[in-house]
Amino acid sequence: MQLKEITDTKIANFVDVTTRTLQNWKKPQEVSRVKFYPPTGKHNLYIGAKLTTYLLAYKENEETEELNNNLEDMLLSIEKAEKLVEIIKAECKSKYLDDLTNEIKFLKEKVEDLDKISKLN
C-alpha cells in the first residue's frame, strides 16, 4: 500500500487551522541568508499536525468520507501478530520465535505510547 500525499489542506481541515498558519509553521528560520530548522520551533507543530493527521484521520481511499484511524489499525495488527506467534510456538519450534516475540513486544510498547500521547486526559 503506497502512502498518498497528505496535503496541507487535509492537515488544516483536521487540526482546524488555516493553510496559511501551516505555511508559517513549516517556514525555516533564516540567519545571514542561511535557512535551517533548529531543534525547537514552530516547524515541530507542523510535523506534529501532519503525524496526527496520518495516525488519526488518514484517508487511503478518497472516494469514501470515512476517516481511517491508522493508530488503531496498528494496534490491532500487533495483537494479531502476537496471536500468530503463539500459534506458531504451539506448532513448531524455531530459534527465531524469541526474537520475533521481542520485536512484537517492542512495537507494541511504542504504538501504545503513541496511543496514550494521542489521548486528551
Unreliable spans:
none
Spatial separation of the terminal alpha carbons: 33 Å
Global structural class: mainly alpha
Q: What is the averaged pLDDT score?
A: 84
Helix content: 55-70%
- Globally, the shape reads elongated
- Proportion of strand residues: under 5%
In terms of quaternary structure, the protein is: single chain
Strand order, biggest sheet? 1-2
Largest sheet descriptor: 2 strands, antiparallel
Radius of gyration: 19 Å
Number of structural domains = 2
How many β-strand stretches? 2
Keywords: Coiled coil
Coiled coil: 61-117
Summarize the structure in words:
The mean pLDDT is 84. By secondary structure, the protein is mainly alpha-helical. The longest helix has 22 residues, at 70-91. Helix 1 (8-15) packs across helix 2 (19-25) and helix 1 (8-15) packs across helix 3. Strands 1-2 form a two-stranded antiparallel ribbon. The radius of gyration is 19 Å and the shape is elongated. It is built from 5 helices and 2 strands, in the order ααββααα.
Structure, briefly:
By secondary structure, the chain is mainly α.
Q: What attributes characterize this protein structure?
A:
2 domains, 121 residues, elongated, two-stranded antiparallel sheet, mainly alpha, 2 strands
Ordered list of secondary-structure elements with their pairings:
Blueprint (H helix, E strand, L loop, with lengths): L7 H8 L3 H7 L3 E3 L2 E3 L6 H15 L12 H22 L5 H22 L3
Helix pairs in contact: 1-2, 1-3, 2-3, 4-5
